[in-house]
Structures are given as structure tokens and as C-alpha cells.
Amino acid sequence: MKKQLFNAINENADTLKRIALYIGEHPELGNEEVLACAELTGELKRQGFRVETDILGLPTAFIATYESGKPGPIVAFLCEYDALPGLGHACGHHLICTMGLGAAIGLKSVLDGIGGAIRVYGTPAEETKGAKVPMSEAGLFDDVDIALMAHPFHRFEKSGSSLAMDALQFEYFGKSAHAAANPQDGVNALDAVLMLFNSLNALRQQLASHARIHGVITAGGEAPNIIPEYASAKFYVRSANRPYTDETVRKVIRCAEGAALQTGCTLATSNYEYSYDELSTNGPLSEAFTANLVGLGVAAERIYDGQDHGSLDLGNVSRRCPSIHPFVQVIDETHMLHTPEFRDFAMTERALDGMILSAKALAATAYDVISDTVLLQNIKSAFRATK
Q1: Phi, psi of 88 (to 5 degrees)
Q2: In angstroms, rounded to a whole number, what is the distance separating the alpha carbons of residues 365 and 379?
């Protein structure tokens, strides 16, 4: 049956590559992925999936379903298709979504014989306000047995970990005045932002090595001879787990409050993006995916242990159902994600072939879970232990 699902992916390979290239050539920012959503949902409908759009009021989110009519596990393939500002698809999301599409097509070709159901989740805006967060909170993954996705990269890596993250915005409100004629009448909001940065630089010395704080000034005044009455800054606060991230956020907020107190400004604090939880990789599910990569011809010594590559909204999904996020090699050159070089190489035939390989590994892993009750039990036991 694996040969059958591989053949189904091969038969659709030209279509899958066309869709990936089209999305790559038409990059769209988060929650604006109209063209990508239309391409993916159109092909899913053509393949016999029932498609729901406008999920949770998100116009470019979708859930596509195919049910065998027989009892069995619910398998989810997750698709991301948003691009980066100024860089396009430098994170390879045009490949990620098409991997999920290809895996669903392959698994569907054998599903009527083995039972279960397939769901393809279209999840916009992973780079900013990741849709997996409200989807998770709404319980849309609670009945899913496994959630699968893979990320393009310059080498193979097992599913590892990610950093929990909060996105904080601090806005300071002061009082403008002429900086030369009557500076004594002003309350300098930019001074508050600068004090905040200095406080955070000092705070970093007392943080665990896995914690990260990085930010930018988003407003700091208009003219050098006018004391700024408004200034703002945005930060990402990350660490290896949610409890320590929450603790660090509290410390960061106290630094912000201290800057307001020192300058006499008023402070407004907000979250400008969703909070991401750390990824909890399901061990047995990850081992099954790795075994399928090896079965498809990838030498075991070429598959590295999982690394932390930042933050992702799949972490929130992994609290709801067993999940993995491995990295698959799609380029031969060593270029990191979020660079123009990776973007360009991710549009080559080599990258498209890597995408097809990954789709096969994802589909084969889902097949193993559906057909092997012991594997599914081990996956669920591991999930309960980590949850």
C-alpha cells in the first residue's frame, strides 16, 4: 500500500510542483494569502476533499476533510503558506503547504482500504499571528490523533524543540516641548524607551542561557528639536518553556514600568502577536517519520538530531495532539532560513524534488499510524506523559 500511495504522489508530482512554484512566485503576507489559499483548496476539491473556508473568521484559513467511511485515526497534515516581508518565501512555506497537500493526496489513495480520516489544515500567518494558536484554543485539534508537517532546510533533522514566545509592545506617553526653548516643560517618551533597552541589557545577565529578548524601536519622535511625547518599542521574549517565558515576561514588564516611573511617562503594555508555546515532539511519531525517510533512501547518518530553530505556532498544537516538525533537506547549499539565498534555491528543481520526498515520508508515516495499533498506542502514551 505504501507503493500505492507513493505512486499517487508521483502521478500528481507535476501538479504539486506547479502549485509550489506559483505560490513561491506570488508571495503573500500573513492573513493575506488569497492566491495560495485558492490554489490549495482548489486542488483539494479536485481531489475529492470536502473543504471549509473562513475558519474562525480567518479568510485564508481552511480545513479540508476526506473520510474513508470506516473507523480509524484522524490524521492531520498542516499547511503554511505566508511569506516574509521583503523576502518572499525565504522560509520555504510554498514547499511546506505543498508537502502537506501531496501527503494528503497520497494517503487518500489507500484510505478507503485502511480506514480513518484525513484533515488538511490551512494555517495562515505562521510568521506573525499564527492561526494554529486560535485554532488550538478553539479545540479544532482536540479529536486529532496525529498532526504532521515538515519544514524545508539544508539538511535532514529529526523533530526537535522550539522556543516559547511572547510578543510585547510598550508604548510611552509623555509631553512635547521645545527641546531648546523650554525643555523643562517636556516629558521625554524616547528617554523611557532608551532606559527600557538599557534595563533589558542588564537583565540579560541574570537570565538562563536559553532565554532571548530582542526588540526594535517603532516610534521615537519626529524632529530633534521637539521632545517626543510618544515612543514605542516591540520585543520578542523567548525561552525553552512556557513557565520560564512567563517569568521572564514579568521581569521585562517591570523594567518597562521602571522606565516609565523614572521619566514620568505613562505606559501602555500589549501583546501585538499571539503567544507561541514550545514544541513538544512526540517521540514514537518522530521515530516513525525518520524510519520512513530511511526507507525512502535517506542514509540514517544524514539525519541529525533535532535542533531549536526559533519559535513556531505548532507548539500550541502539540499541547492538543501528538505532533512532529522535522526538517527535510531540499537544497544542497548551506543557507539558513529567512535569507534571499535560501529563497532562491527553494525555487529550484532540487528543492521541488525534496518536497516530493517529504510528502511521501509524511504520507507513509500517517499510513503506519493508521495501520499499526501498537504504534498508535505508543504515540498516545507518550503524548499523555508529556502533556
Answers
A1: 70, -140
A2: 12
What does the alpha-carbon distance between residue 160 and residue 244 come to, in Å, rounded to a whole number?
Answer: 19
Q: C-alpha grid cell for residue 69?
A: 467511511
The CA radius of gyration of the chain, in Å to the nearest whole number, is 23
At 90, list the grid cell: 525565504
Query: Could you tell me which of 290, 285, 280 has the C-alpha nearest to residue 378?
Result: 285
- The domain 2-162+277-386 belongs to what CATH superfamily? Zn peptidases (3.40.630.10)
- Residue intervals in the chain for CATH 3.30.70.360: 164-271
Please list the residues that pair with 244 across neighbouring strands: none
Question: Which cell is 273 given?
Answer: 502577536
d(CA 69, CA 248): 49
- In whole angstroms, how far apart are CA 3 and each of 7, 11, 109, 294, 386? 6, 12, 11, 15, 34
* Nearest partner of 163 among 214, 123, 210, judged by Cα: 210
To which residue does cell 503547504 refer? 97
Question: Range(s) for CATH 3.40.630.10 in the chain?
Answer: 2-162+277-386
pTM, full prediction:
0.92
Cβ neighbour number for residue 137 with a 10 Å cutoff: 13
Each residue's pLDDT, cut to its tens digit, for the chain (387 residues) gives 899 999 999 999 999 999 999 999 999 999 999 999 999 999 999 999 999 999 999 999 999 999 999 999 999 999 999 999 999 999 999 999 999 999 999 999 999 999 999 999 999 999 999 999 999 999 999 999 999 999 999 999 999 999 999 999 999 999 999 999 999 999 999 999 999 999 999 999 999 999 999 999 999 999 999 999 999 999 999 999 999 999 999 999 999 999 999 999 999 999 999 999 999 999 999 999 999 999 999 999 999 998 888 899 999 999 999 999 999 999 998 888 999 999 999 999 999 999 999 999 999 999 999 999 999 999 999 999 987
The CATH code belonging to domain 164-271 is: 3.30.70.360
Rounded-to-integer distance, Cα 386 and Cα 241, Å: 13
DSSP secondary structure string for all residues of 141-204: TTT-SEEE--EEESSEE------EEEEEEEEEE-B--BTTT-GGG-B-HHHHHHHHHHHHHHHG
